[in-house]
Design brief:
By secondary structure, this protein is an alpha+beta fold. The chain folds into 2 domains: about 1-75, no CATH class; about 90-140, no CATH class. The protein has helices at about 1-10, 20-25, 35-40, 55-75; strands spanning about 90, 115-125, 125-130, 135-140. The chain has a 4-stranded antiparallel sheet, with no helix packed on it.
Length: about 140
């Protein structure tokens, strides 16, 4: 029951990235919900009469591109760049879990990995880690 209302709320709300509702983008019109009819809610300022023109769709695409450019700025706002370089030896954190059946206590396990080498910096916050002895990529890791 709740899922239906959540779906309706999602489809009838104006999204920050496109500045339109999904039902306007896909159907070309607003969905009528009982709440909107009862309270006489209208998205007239957001909806054009001729929704699926090239101008309308290009405006929605430009809104998406602008939102895509804003997102990394919000994410990286308080971040400082890492000082690692290719070839550095590092350790990464392990996710520990206890198991009563196997009599393993997370308190006694190692919380860091064995030393590995940074093989490649994929993005400013993502690196590829390799075995320092044989150079085989072990995993991809997030640097914070």
């Amino acid at each position: 029951m709740v899922e239906q209302f959540l779906g309706l709320a999602f489809n009838t709300s104006v999204h920050e990235s496109t500045r339109y509702t999904p039902d306007v983008l896909f159907l070309g019109r607003d969905l009528k919900s009982s709440l909107a009819v009862r309270w006489n809610l209208s998205l007239g300022s957001y909806v054009d009469n001729n929704c699926h023109t090239n101008q309308f769709l290009s405006r929605a695409c430009s809104n998406l591109l602008a939102a895509r450019k804003r997102e990394p700025q919000k994410f990286n706002k308080g971040q400082t760049p890492h000082r690692y370089s290719v070839g550095d030896l590092v350790r990464y954190g392990l996710r520990l879990s206890s198991s009563k059946g196997q009599t393993i206590s997370a308190k006694l396990l190692l919380s860091r990995s064995v030393p590995v080498t940074i093989a490649k910096i994929v993005r400013p916050n993502v690196v590829l880690l390799a075995n320092p002895d044989i150079g085989v990529i072990i995993r991809r890791a997030h640097v914070s």
